[in-house]
């Protein structure tokens, strides 16, 4: 066990260093996200003109939801892991993992964790700078359970995000180009993950259906727990469904990896 | 002029053949764009379940605005986007040399090398959204209003082109081109909002300085409430300034370009 931890600790350290190299990319991305946040503020402020609540929530609660979403995105969202994995398969870089006592999924996941640590902390910089402007809009519910249930939900969301990206990467075993698949899926994730509007604003039936899909647990679920958009019972029930999706996606990822390797030809040079 | 039309038609033929060679790709990318438009329409449908107006715009006025914004964006994507996007890469690799040796002005050659049929296909969907909104609003614009709308769309397309040209031309001075894509999409997002929603600093930046809000609001307003002189002046001035700026930066970059050695 100690050996196992030591092994992936090295991967984590390498991941940390290589991601710090891309600090300006992350900073730029964070800056663009802040401009997007301005778009969200303008749109929702205009929608709330003449309404005190929308879907039972005030303007400040809705804006807090979007700000939380932004922070979560930099800490748990998958960025370009799918393309990186795809590139490693296409270029034959994965061959080196096939002959070494290292699990490719664990290796990539460790890199993902280190990358999100860097991007998350970097994204906090512009947010903290903008805090004097944002603070008047922030309103979080006081219950402590939101933190104790929200954190495991966020961790499982990260697992779901990463595993979906990993699964798309695996498609490279069968398809030459995965970009269109990724972007197509991204549109569905954007909508059903609650990035365009909080999912609870959907008509009741569609909202209920969305709760059984993995997208709900990618981003909306932890954000909704933290910002008070769902109650205790829904949060507990949601954690169960989320755990199911984590396992199901991990199973699928493993299956694709094994089937993919059967297709894979390592050409030596 | 005829000479340039012939060159452009040759590019169109080339793009058509290429799309048909990669049919699977063509279908996938058409779906991608279709889905993105679906996301925007769904957003309006959901928000208007809970409110009657966004900054004084009703649901179908808003849909008309978003449809107009999509129409301009699809045209830009179909006609110019990948050309300008690749320009940055070509400058870095030195492949830009080939454009200088081609039988036309470099700006024309880099801007029109190929067209993306998937985006142009989705122009029809954006147009359908606009027509649907017009029908739902119960307005019957005159031929004059429609002509103004089309001219305004053209101005929007030219302004968007100029903005992307400007962003892509920065590659003459820098190495990276990553900012082009994110820069454009981040700014263009604001074209889906009504002018009346803006105030303070955001109003100055997105409404008056950048060609974001004006390019969709002016044509949409022309269809809804007819021709307006202030809107016309506003849009024409903005288009003129941005196009001049885009071309000036491109020309300055061109003078600086010294190819790349291998």
* Oligomeric form: heterodimer
Strand tally of chain B, please?
0
What is the structural class of chain B? mainly alpha
Percent range of helical residues of chain B:
over 70%
Coarse shape of chain B? globular
Tally of alpha and pi helices of chain A? 12
Q: Strand-residue fraction of chain B?
A: under 5%
Kindly state the mean pLDDT of chain A as a whole number?
A: 90
Distance between the termini of chain A: 35 Å
Sketch the major β-sheet of chain A.
none
Report the count of strand segments of chain A: 0
End-to-end separation of chain B in angstroms reads 36 Å
Count of all domains of chain A: 1
Low-confidence stretches of chain B: none
* Main sheet attributes: strand count, strand direction, barrel closure of chain B: none
The secondary-structure element order of chain B is HHHHHHHHHHH
Give a verbal description of the structure.
Chain A is an all-alpha fold. In chain A, 72% of the residues lie in helices and 0% in strands. Chain B has 262 residues and is mainly α. Chain B has one domain (2-256). Chain B is 76% helix and 0% strand. Chain B has helices at 2-21, 23-47, 59-93, 97-100, 106-111, 117-137, 143-169, 178-188, 200-209, 213-225, 229-256. Chain A binds chain B through residues 25, 28-29, 32, 35-36, 38-39, 42-43, 45-51, 54-55, 177, 180-181, 183-184, 187-188, 190-191, 196-197, 201-203, and chain B through 25, 28-29, 31-32, 35-36, 38-39, 42-43, 46-47, 49-55, 178-179, 182-183, 186-187, 189-190, 193-194, 196-198, 202.
């Amino acid at each position: 066990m100690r050996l196992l931890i030591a092994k992936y600790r090295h991967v984590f350290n390498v991941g940390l260093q290589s991601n710090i190299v891309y600090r300006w990319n992350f900073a730029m991305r964070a800056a663009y996200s802040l401009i997007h946040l301005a778009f969200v503020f303008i749109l929702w402020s205009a929608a709330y003109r003449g309404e005190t609540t929308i879907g039972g929530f005030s303007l400040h609660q809705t804006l807090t939801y979007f700000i939380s979403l932004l922070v979560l995105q930099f800490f748990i969202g998958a960025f370009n892991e799918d393309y990186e994995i795809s590139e490693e398969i296409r270029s034959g870089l994965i061959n080196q993992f096939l002959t070494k006592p290292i699990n490719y999924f664990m290796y990539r996941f460790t890199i993902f964790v280190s990358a999100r640590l860097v991007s998350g902390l970097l994204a906090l910089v512009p947010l903290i700078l903008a805090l004097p402007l944002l603070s008047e809009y922030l309103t979080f519910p006081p219950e402590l359970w939101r933190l104790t249930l929200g954190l495991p939900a966020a961790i499982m969301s990260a697992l779901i995000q990463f595993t979906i990206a990993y699964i798309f990467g695996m498609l490279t075993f069968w398809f030459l180009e995965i970009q269109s698949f990724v972007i197509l899926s991204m549109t569905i994730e954007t909508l059903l993950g609650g990035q365009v509007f909080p999912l609870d604003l959907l008509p009741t039936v569609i909202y209920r259906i969305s709760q059984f899909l993995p997208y709900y647990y990618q981003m909306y679920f932890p954000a909704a727990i933290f910002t008070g958009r769902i109650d205790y019972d829904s949060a507990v029930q949601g954690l169960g469904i989320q755990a199911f999706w984590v396992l199901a996606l991990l199973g699928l990822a493993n299956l694709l990896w094994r089937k993919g390797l059967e297709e894979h030809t390592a050409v030596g040079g | 002029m005829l000479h340039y039309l012939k060159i452009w038609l040759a590019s169109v033929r080339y793009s058509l053949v290429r799309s048909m060679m990669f049919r699977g790709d063509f279908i996938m990318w058409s779906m991608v764009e279709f889905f993105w438009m679906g996301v925007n329409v769904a957003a309006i449908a959901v928000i208007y379940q809970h409110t009657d107006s966004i900054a004084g715009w009703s649901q179908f006025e808003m849909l008309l605005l978003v449809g107009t914004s999509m129409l301009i964006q699809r045209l830009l994507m179909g006609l110019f986007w990948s050309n300008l996007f690749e320009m940055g890469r070509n400058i870095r690799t030195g492949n830009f040399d080939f454009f200088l040796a081609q039988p036309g002005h470099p700006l024309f050659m880099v801007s029109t090398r190929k067209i993306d049929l998937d985006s142009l296909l989705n122009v029809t969907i954006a147009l359908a959204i606009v027509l649907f909104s017009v029908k739902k609003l119960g307005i019957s614009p005159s031929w004059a209003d429609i002509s103004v709308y089309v001219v305004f769309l053209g101005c929007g397309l030219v302004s968007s082109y100029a903005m992307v040209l400007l962003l892509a031309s920065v590659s003459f001075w820098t190495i990276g081109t990553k900012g082009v894509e994110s820069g454009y999409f981040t700014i263009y997002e604001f074209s889906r909002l009504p002018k009346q929603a803006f105030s303070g600093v955001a109003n100055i930046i997105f409404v008056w300085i950048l060609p974001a809000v004006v390019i969709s609001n002016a044509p949409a307003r022309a269809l809804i409430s007819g021709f307006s002189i202030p809107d016309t002046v506003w849009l024409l001035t903005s288009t003129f300034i941005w196009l001049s700026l885009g071309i000036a930066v491109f020309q300055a970059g061109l003078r600086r370009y010294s190819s790349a050695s291998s």
